[in-house]
TrEMBL record:
Family under the similarity heading: Belongs to the sigma-70 factor family. ECF subfamily.
Record carries keyword Transcription: yes
Annotated Pfam families: Sigma70_r2
GO biological process, one term: DNA-templated transcription initiation
One annotated GO molecular function: sigma factor activity
Compositional bias (Basic and acidic residues): 103-129
Protein name: RNA polymerase sigma-70 region 2 domain-containing protein
Domain RNA polymerase sigma-70 region: 40-106
InterPro entries referenced in this protein's UniProt entry, alphabetically: RNA_pol_sigma-70-like, RNA_pol_sigma-70_dom, RNA_pol_sigma70_r2, RNA_pol_sigma_r2, RNA_pol_sigma_r3/r4-like, WH-like_DNA-bd_sf
Stored PANTHER family: RNA POLYMERASE ECF-TYPE SIGMA FACTO, RNA POLYMERASE SIGMA FACTOR HI_1459-RELATED
Length: 215
C-alpha cells in the first residue's frame, strides 16, 4: 500500500508536457476548462519563442500566439488524437509565423513602391538596398541551426525539455519550470549547467563552428 501511494505521488512529476496538453483537451471537452487554462499559461512562452525564432516582431508574435490558441479552441471538438495537440500547436504557431513574415515583407514592399517614386531629374527609379540577409548569410545560419538541433537531439530527454524551457526567457521562472518537468527548484540551475556542458561537448565533437560553442 505504501509503495502504491509513493508511486501515485511520483506520477505527476513524470507526466510530460504533451500528456498534460492531451489531458487539458479532454478536460475542456468535459466542461472543465481549468486544465486548459493552466496549459495555456505554461505553453504560451514556448509558442511565443517558436514564433519569434521565425523572425516575427514581438507584437506580431503576440497576435500569432493568440490566434493559435483561438484555433485550438475552435477545433477542440474535432481533435481525433489529443496526444498530438502539443505538436499541432507548435506547427500551427510556426505556420502563423511564416504568414506574418510574408505579410510584413509584402507591406514593406508596398510602402517602398509607394514612396520610392522616379527621380525628378532622370525619371529613373532609385534602387533601394534590400534589408534581407544575403544568400551566403542565410546559408551559413541555416547550416549552424541544423548542426545545433541535430546535436541537441542527442541530449537526454530530460536535458532537452529543461533547456527548451530555460531558453524561453532572459530570467526563467524556476518555479514554473519545476512544475512543468517535475524537477526540484534547487536542482534546476545545476542540472542546466550539466546539460549545457554536455551540449558544448557534443558540439565540439561534431566539429561545429565556434559561434555555437561561445554562444
Amino acid at each position: 500500500m505504501a509503495e502504491s501511494r509513493q508511486k501515485t505521488r511520483r506520477e505527476p512529476d513524470e507526466v510530460s508536457l504533451g500528456d498534460r496538453a492531451a489531458h487539458a483537451v479532454l478536460e475542456y471537452r468535459e466542461g472543465r476548462p481549468a486544465a486548459l487554462e493552466a496549459v495555456v499559461r505554461e505553453m504560451t512562452p514556448l509558442l511565443w519563442h517558436t514564433v519569434r525564432a521565425q523572425g516575427v516582431e514581438p507584437q506580431a508574435a503576440d497576435d500569432v500566439v493568440q490566434d493559435t490558441w483561438v484555433a485550438l479552441v475552435r477545433h477542440m471538438d474535432t481533435i481525433a488524437e489529443p496526444h498530438a495537440v502539443l505538436k499541432w500547436l507548435l506547427v500551427t504557431a510556426r505556420r502563423g509565423a511564416w504568414e506574418a513574415v510574408r505579410r510584413r515583407r509584402r507591406d514593406e514592399k508596398n510602402r517602398t513602391e509607394l514612396h520610392d517614386g522616379p527621380d525628378p531629374e532622370t525619371g529613373a527609379h532609385r534602387e533601394v538596398p534590400s534589408a534581407d540577409p544575403t544568400p551566403d548569410t542565410v546559408a551559413a545560419t541555416n547550416d549552424r541551426d541544423r548542426t545545433l538541433w541535430t546535436v541537441f537531439q542527442d541530449l537526454p530527454a530530460r536535458c532537452r525539455e529543461l533547456l527548451r524551457l530555460v531558453s524561453l526567457a532572459d530570467r526563467p521562472d524556476y518555479k514554473h519550470i519545476s512544475e512543468a518537468i517535475g524537477m526540484p527548484v534547487g536542482s534546476i540551475g545545476a542540472t542546466r549547467g550539466r546539460c549545457l556542458a554536455k551540449l558544448r561537448t557534443l558540439l565540439d565533437e561534431s566539429g561545429a563552428d565556434d559561434t555555437w560553442r561561445h554562444a
